[in-house]
Amino acid sequence: MPPSTHPRLSSNLKSCHNCRRRRLRCDKSYPACHKCSIGGEECLGYGAVLRWASAPAIRARGKSPPPEEHESGQSWGQTPFTPSAFLTDPLLNHLSKTSRHYVHHFNTSVCRDLVSIDQNGRNPFRIMIALISRFPYLEALVIATSAMHLATMHRYQGRSAHAELVDALAAKDKAIRSLRAAITHATPASQAMVLVAIVFFINLDLIDSGKGGWKAHITAAGRLTASLQHTPTLNPALAPLADAIAADCLTYRILGSTVNTTNNTNPLPDDVDMAVLTRTQAHSYHCCPPAVLQVILSASRLNPADTAPAAALLRRARALRVPDWVRSIRGLAPGDDLDVRVGIASAHRAAACLYVSLVVPAVGARLDVLAQEILEHLATVPDDHMLLKGTVWPTFMAGAQTDDEGCRGWCIDRLRAVWTKNPWICPWGYIRTATEMLEKIWDGRGELAEGMNWLQQLKGSKDSNCLIV
Questions:
Q1: What SUPFAM superfamilies does this protein map onto (predicted)?
Q2: What are the boundaries of each domain within the chain?
Q3: Torsion-angle region of 73 (φ positive above 0: left; ψ -120 to 50: alpha; else: beta)
Q4: Which label site among 90, 278, 307, 427 has the fewest CB atoms less than 10 Å from its CB?
């Protein structure tokens, strides 16, 4: 495996806050230094420290960073709240100490998980924190998501998670009740926030186990996304968040269809806005080219006899020049690891080819060769790299296809590494569910009917109810 490579900040920057306080030499890795990661301590980073305080003087001592330009030309400074002031904003004073703790965890950990690399001041999901005083259902969902995230992390660490689970379920129930009232009185201007809420219910399911009501949430979010395409009243300051949410919803729906029974009564419309995937590709933690997602979407509509369309999709996937696509992405963080992005994107492309070949077996592709190609691309990604969280779906596809015991074990180790070896730990329960599904697929290999592959068997089973992204 290649040696681990982590982006480093410029050498003229100060050490992280923890290392400065303890007078240690900091390696200035981004977004968290290795000393903090190895010691199991949350790195406070290199920018201004956010502190809970009632003293108004704290805000006066710190200057807000200059607004950054978004790719659309809109300034992040147009938002009525400054990201660095979220946690000391007077509009959050109504929150209890426990709720503020969860909002802090959402700001420092959950938002980091939701993007490829957490760029200071350019994480669209932190806009949610500025909106919770306006939309009660967003406040409840931020708390529920953060509490579930902490609960899952505590379970991984062998600690009690009872209090966090109770808080997560209580906040989720509150969010459902508040959202019902909001939908009843929804206006075109508030539809975007309703979409944010619905997609975060999907994130809640992913953090918990990847099971649950995600299919209904994706269906509802898909309908709302379609209507928002024709809504000109969206506040430009909310556009980054709305785009990120719409892109996640679309990605979840496309990748979710690969291992789950497709709901033919509510397919994705032909005019779905795929351009949102391009606008958000710098932030997407999946690191999957929009062109590859388009291939997967088209393949999900094929029948086993559609050999010619399947062959055309394989040619389209192979025509994608992955390195050129990576270099064309606008808005990447300074020091972003382009080589790793190429490896992940290439793994997604090979996995898409495998998916097409499983949907239409008559296309005649060598499935074992495709699985090996996926594994070779994945092997270029260090198992403690911050972008490893974008490899779950291709790892699952390769693991499910391979018959080699060594490769199977490697795939399980890689999925577990997203939790155990990554300094930016990503405790999402659907990853553990994916490992359990792989074990079931392997156990049932000998029971496959003649002419049936593992994907066809999975979609026809009761286990086909997990979102693998």
A1: Zn2/Cys6 DNA-binding domain
A2: 78-256, 257-265+276-469
A3: left
A4: 90
